[in-house]
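All the exercises in this workshop are built on plain-text protein records. There is nothing in a record beyond a sequence line and a structure line. A learned vocabulary of local backbone shapes supplies the integers on the structure line. The question running through the whole workshop is how a given chain folds. Here is such a record, shown just as it appears in the course material:

***
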Amino acid sequence: MATSAASVAESANSVASSAASVASSAASLANEANSVAKSAATAASTATAAQSAADEAASAASQADANNSNAASQASTASQVASGASQAASQADKTASQASSTAEKAQSVATNAGSDAAKYPNNSAVTSAASTASSAASVAQSAVSTASSAASVAASQASTASSANAVASSAATVASNANDIASSAAVAASSYAQAGDSSAASSAASQATSAAAVASSAQAVASSAASVAQSASEADSSAASVASSATSTASAANEMASSAAAATSRAAAAQSAADKEAAMNQAGDAAKTASSATATTSSAATQATTDASAASSYAKTASSAATAIGSVANQSRSQASAVANLASKTTDATVASAASQAASAASAADSAASVASSASAVAQSAAKLPAPPLLKQMRCTVRPKLLNQLPRFMPHWQHRLPKLVINQLLIHMLLRPPVLPAKQ
């Protein structure tokens, strides 16, 4: 009985020992499972962080690519604007050269008119026309200065646009390089994420973000440079317009100078013809003197009629020139206002200079309009002068005895009366019958 109880106790002890061993093994397995679970959780967290870093890198690369595209577009715009500014500057330079050539012609015409006026200083028609030609030449020269200044401004603005284009191009290159770096970093971050290396993936994502920031800054620089190029191009175009208007003013002034010079030449020719007529009236016997006086006076009357017609034509030409120059003056004022408006929107010194030059051009155009108006008034007055009657419409008897007495009176008339007045007196004396003394 005691033996059986001992055997049972031993068996129970063995079972308990086995159960304890099983419990110990189970506890060990539980610990290992817990460790595995922790490792799995850590791995999952690492993988999540790596994937997040990879996603961030991909987003940064996408942003860098967009900034790169914008920078390239801005650089292209700046290049086109700079090219247009260069063409405008070239055109302004050609226009200024044309204005200079026109002014030289006007000056030459005015010089010739001055030479004619110097021969007849007492003839107001000659001196007035020569003065008008000289004033027109001065206006043309002033327009040349304006056109030259505008061309200089246009060249300066074209240079500014070119520099801005270079900056935009460099910024586009920087943005492109930054985009390449961001793309490479994004690819690396994705690889690290797949490998589960969250630290490396995070570092690559940081590089991609930095590269994207660089691309964004480069895009902003390119955009600013394109804006500068656009502003410079607008100022360049305005300066070219000012140069063109100044050239038009110079051309109109040259036409006015030519018309005035032609009037000077015709007035001088008329004065010369009058002088010759007076000389012919003083010479020869009565018959030749009467015949010459009749023919010369008839020619002078015909010439006066022709001159009157020409004066009317010149008056119309001067009026048209005054209207054209007035239109140019209005255009110059409008362009000056446009450039001033542009100058008010920026602090760029070159734009302000362009505005000043535009204002000068408008002032020069106003001066040209004033001169043109004066020339038109002179031409209108000249056109209204009455022409002398033709001798062929008159009937008279020439007294030889009176004709023989003319040379004796001429010296007294010559130093007291203008030549045109002397000619009129001679004609009246030739045509009117003498007053004979009453018979005793």
